[in-house]
Amino acid sequence: MITRPHPRARRTHLAIGVASSAALALSGVAGCSDSGKAGDEPSASVSPSATGSTEPTESPSGVDLTEPGSQLAFGDTAIVDYTIRNRSSILGLTVTAAKQGQLKDFVGFDMSDPLKKNASYFYVRVTVKNAGDKPTGGIDTPLWGISGTNTLLPPVKFTSAFKKCPTDSLPDKFAPGDTFRTCLVFLSPNKGSLEGVSYRPLASFDPIEWHGQVQKPVVKPKKKPKKKAGKG
């Protein structure tokens, strides 16, 4: 979670609900109890061990759901049956692009915590469509980052606008056919990488993944000091 105190404060506070030990291993179900409920997981937009039901929604006529385990490229769309708080939705999820951020993007935030200071940050652009026949809305985009150590990274949550990557929940009223664009921030600990993006609503779900080229940040070359003209 990212919070900002009063704007007059000299230094704002950055509280990210992510820790290296909190990421879920893709190969297992870490963080789940025998009851299927989440364990001591950080506050994130969606927890694979704590969302909804495994019972599929009856898809609208003509809508084909993307097979679990599908491997997609950036720009591809997955049609998924997403259930949360006993409310089912058919969503079209498209991961359009991913770009690595820089620590200087967070000027004004308190980045003194070693976890934050030594992390890599990634901005992922996503398009969400209501591909079903029922209205929905007011939910977070159910996607996770995949780190180079094969762990899931929950999206960073903001309590105020982050201009580099504006992160918003779906509108409260999201009618069939409506489209919504947002940007998700992922923190990869210890200067880690981002290898892809995952849709995994339950720990037992064979994830749908997107992979593609992650854009590197543009680093402007340092200006060389001008040589003083000699006396002639």
Automatic annotation (TrEMBL):
Signal sequence range: 1-25
Presence of keyword Signal:
yes
Biased-composition ranges for Polar residues?
44-60
For region Disordered, the annotated ranges are 35-68
For this protein, the record's PROSITE patterns field holds: PROKAR_LIPOPROTEIN
The record's keywords, sorted A to Z, are: Signal
Protein known as:
DUF4352 domain-containing protein
What is the scientific name of the source organism? Answer: Nocardioides marmoribigeumensis
